[in-house]
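Sample pair:
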Amino acid sequence: MTDNELRAATMLGDKYHLYLVSNCMKPELRKLQIVRNPSKEYEGRFAPMVYRVMG
């Protein structure tokens, strides 16, 4: 999550959902996980980071 997404999740609480999709290129293995209020669910475990590619 970006820093802005984490702020929005914190502000919106149970109204904010995080959708995690795995194996999206393999329909037979595709899985969807919905995390309601991720800022509460993963409290203290987020470390927003930004990477910039200089070219």
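Helices lie at 3-12, 38-41.
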